[in-house]
Amino acid sequence: MSEAKPLTLHDLSTEQRLALCFMVGSDSEAIADELEPFFGTGLGGVLWFRHHFNHIDTAQDCRAYMADLRGRFGPNPLGFMGVDQEGGQVERLPHWFFPTGCTALSYGRSRQLDLCRTVAEETARRLRWLGFNLNFAPTVDLNREQANPIIGVRAYGETVEAVMPFAQAVMAAHVQAGVLPVAKHFPGHGSGTVDSHLDLPVFGNWQPDELDPYTELIHNHDPALGAVLVAHGLYPALCERLGVDPSVVSSMNPGIIVQLLRDELGFGNGLVFSDDMTMGAIGKHTDPEEAALHVLDAGCDVLVYRQAQPLAWQVYSALLKRLRQGKLDEQRINEKAQRVWQTIQTLGAVDRPSFDEAALSKTYCHDLALGWVKQAMAEQHHYVPSPLPLNQKKTWALVAPNQLDMVHYRDDLRQAPPLEGWLTQAGLKPAMHFNYPLPGVSRQREPDGGSGSQWPVWAEHPLDALVFVAFNALLDEAQQRYYQRLVEAHPATKVVLVSVGMPTDGQVLVSGQSQTGMMGPWVHLCLPSYRPASQHALVQWLAAPPKGFESLSMAETTG
After folding, report:
1. What is the pairing mode between strands 465-470 and 494-500?
2. Domain residue ranges of the chain, discontinuous segments joined by +
3. Distance CA 20, CA 35 (A)
4. For residue 438, which of 468, 467, 470 has the smallest C-alpha distance?
5. Per CATH, domain 21-348 is 3.90.230.10
């Protein structure tokens, strides 16, 4: 019997070509159930999230799970298997079968380009082995706004020079592995103060050099940048420069996508993805069907939806009806489908890598990530003599965020202990311990309404050391006040301040402390994330600081 002839774009129906312009996910763990309507049409891509993998124990099971989903589409085309595996804070694959990376900022601040390249290569190869062929990375935003609620540690730095070497390394690693890297968030999200997941940001402080990473990747990188994700936002200064309507959202603005990205910057026929179409930046202000039409008309090729049901399927059905009635330009849909199809064929030509069984184990993945974290951990400063190492002879307290309140990190607790568990395993037990709630529902349930005024400070207990783990303190006044209350209650105690990701957390807390006339923290460490490997590395550091730690002065370690 002869083999079936491979599908070509010309073999696809109108329904299938339109479906190539959709990439959808699922809010449910049962992703196949939510995607079922698309089994008969195909899809441009499936977007995977962390909750889709919580019931999977091994990499082998994950690979089989993804292959099973692809098989459910039968003869219909399924293009991308996509994920946001940036590293550190934004990761979708569980630590128990995928080694966790480090935040972009941790590479940038420690200038660990070789480490970034190594992690990117390992990440891309493992993604490809599992069955992914798209990663929404690298983030090439310039982190200009300290109060930015969604970029922060996801950016490599504040300048083009700081960002580009790392972005190029990540991009090259993915291309080599047969995984499409998608640069984001065009035309720049680093100067914002509003989370586009919640509402529409206005980038009033946007600067022209925020376009430079895209220009560099398009013109000065081999191979050239092939895919871009466009943000949902308003860019008044940019629109004024382009001579286009500043009240039109970037993802719906042909001036930004066609005139600027495709023509002026030379992106040409590169693939353009929208940001999630269910975000508040879009959903709060525009009808879903109209939004999809505007985004496609503006030059985007693929509409991205976090959930398939009911929204994505409803929008697809509405657009298909328009297409059949001649109210949607079929030629433009065909052009978009062609870009998707060509990209898929190119990626499919790259062979999957191989891994032996031991390299896929939970222990191997954890140890690999632990080694990366130790290289990326940044010591901001310390005074001599240090309160480290900690041991059971010292009376010390641990204050850390409640991990159940940490959206990006709480699922890690399914197969890893919290920080206090890692300490117990190492034979370190604090005399006092408190997990402070983060902004949200749990804090609102606090007796003081979440102000932090009733959180313990243990003033009656003298302490040799206080370990304070800060998380997004810059955006959390209650956390800032709590830190001040603690250091005021223990003026002679040596503080070990640990910033999870953002070094500015430490800066804002130290600034408040200095206003009281008190000395800053004795030790300030920056973790590259709050993943299990980072918590494990922190505990090892607290118990046994690296050789030479005591011989350094603050002046020598502050940079």
Report:
1. parallel
2. 21-348, 377-557
3. 14
4. 470
5. no
Other beta carbons within 10 angstroms of residue 216's beta carbon come to: 17
- Residues 36, 42, 43: CA angle, nearest 5 degrees: 95
**145: which strand partners?**
none
Within its chain, how far is the Cα of 272 from the centroid? 19
Classified as helix, coil or strand, 475 is helix
Is residue 462 predicted with pLDDT exceeding 80? yes
Least confident span in 354-363, 429-438, 448-457, 463-472: 448-457
For residue 426, count CB atoms less than 10 angstroms from its CB and return exposed for 0-12, middle for 13-18, buried for 19 or more: middle
Q: What is the pTM of this model?
A: 0.94
Which of left, alpha, beta for 36 (phi over 0: left; psi -120 to 50: alpha)? Answer: alpha
Residue 81 corresponds to which amino acid? M
Place of tokens 């994920």: 83
Average pLDDT, the chain: 92
CA distance 275 to 556: 43
Q: Residue 23 — left, alpha, or beta (φ > 0 → left; ψ -120 to 50 → alpha)?
A: beta
CA atoms of 416 and 410, how far apart (whole Å): 10
Tokens of 316: 């697809």
Q: What pLDDT is stored for residue 2 in this prediction? A: 46
The residue to which tokens 């990366």 are assigned: 372
377-557 to CATH, choices 3.30.499.10, 3.40.50.1700, 2.130.10.10, 3.40.630.10: 3.40.50.1700
- 3-state SS class at 505: helix
Which pLDDT score, from 0 to 100, does residue 156 have? Answer: 97
Q: Is 496 helix (H, G, I), strand (E, B) or coil?
A: strand
Tell me how far apart the alpha carbons of residues 116 and 376 are, in angstroms, rounded to a whole number: 9
Length of the chain: 559
Are 23 and 80 in contact by the 8 Å Cβ rule? The answer is: yes
Burial class (CB in 10 A: 0-12, 13-18, 19+), 452: buried
Do residues 523 and 467 touch, judged by C-beta distance below 8 A?
no
Residue 36 and residue 70 in contact, taking contact as beta carbons nearer than 8 Å: no
Using the predicted structure, report yes or no on whether residue 551 has a pLDDT greater than 70. no
- pLDDT over 70 for what percent of the chain? 94
* H helical segments located in 131-230: 160-177, 212-219
Query: What DSSP character marks residue 139?
Result: B
